[in-house]
Amino acid sequence: MSHAPLASACAAVLRRDLTLAWRRRGDIVMPVLYALIVITLFPFALGPEEALLQRIAGGAVLVTMLLAMLLALDAMFRSDIEDGSLEQLMLSPQPLALMLGMKILAHWITTALPLIVIAPLLAGMLHLPTAVMPVLVYALLLSTPLLSLLGAVLVALTAGTRRSGMLLALMLLPLCVPVVIFAAGAVAAAQQGLPWLAPIAWLGAALVMALVLAPLACATALRIALDA
Amino acid sequence: MTAPHAVAAPLLEARALTFYRQDEPVFGPLDFCLHEGEVALVEGDNGSGKTTLLRILAGLLHIDEGSLAWRGQPWRRVEHLGDTLFLGHHLGLKADLSARENLAVAAGLYGARDGRSVGGVLNDIGLAGYEDEPVRRLSAGQKKRAALARLLLLPATLWLLDEPYANLDRTGIELVNRLLAQHAAEGGAALVTSHGAVSFLAGEPKRVRMHA
Question: What ipTM, to 2 d.p.?
């Protein structure tokens, strides 16, 4: 009996999740809208003083982006568990970790990528110098997939529990802290004209580790969640 | 593997299979065997563990006690992932996708039988004209048919069907029976759950009785 090749299975899962996201375009807009509103409110709350806004710009944009990503996080596996798609995925003759990796990739493309696209605009609203923009984008390109992967593990761990939202937020907080520290550290260093490569490299290293380990952890956690 | 049917080891054999949920026995000890070309009806009252049994055989739940053998060899979950096809209460259909798209995803994951195509299978299952309608707009029976289309398209030896007759009209029930007969004729096997003594299966199928 010949099974489906791995590449076509990966493509099928990725295409399915992207199609589903496209059919519910309103959900993609939500985090973007949220980030836009939060960043718009900062100058109103703190006053239009340019030096102050410039100082907080990097951190404010990063924290807003990461929080906006959390909005969509707990839905990552929920509908798949409810309609039985996850069972079918789990029983297919494909490596579950890789299939879940595709789901996480689709989630990152639909939630984080739009946020990264508008990030320079948001940072500009807070007067972040143009020279620092690339560093902000690098930091986001590394920290958002890291957060998607870490979040996916926690979503998988809390999948079996009811009202997992609160638990998820509590568990994710300590994992977010280092991500925010390194990402904001890189932007702050660049703003002061200091070398910013080290914190970016740390984020890259963490991302590589998460890329390898998080899908495996997800697969194990979801197997346990369904085995109950 | 090339031994004649009569002496071949059964496709699936369960010995003293027992399942506990929080130390409460759900069913068992249960003994049965299923040969190639056999369709067995799992009978039992509500809560007797029919669905649990199918989920164990699919590999979703672990075995507490007893043993399972596949063609005489100890059954291991990872080795038989593509050999079984599980159709549960949750149909595994994405409501925002059409039947055609849902089926294409399943074929991408499981592979397709030789000579079968998504469009042809949907036609055979009675969904012609509804292929591109989002599944959420289909009736309960049509959703069931969209899920049953997987049986025709995907290659698998053992079918585990949880209440396949639910929501189906008379022609749908006949369709399921025809699928089962065809599958058995091709050397496949199936376990089918159904409430109580009511059975739509033609003839006298093998029965697996759950101890309530």
Answer: 0.86
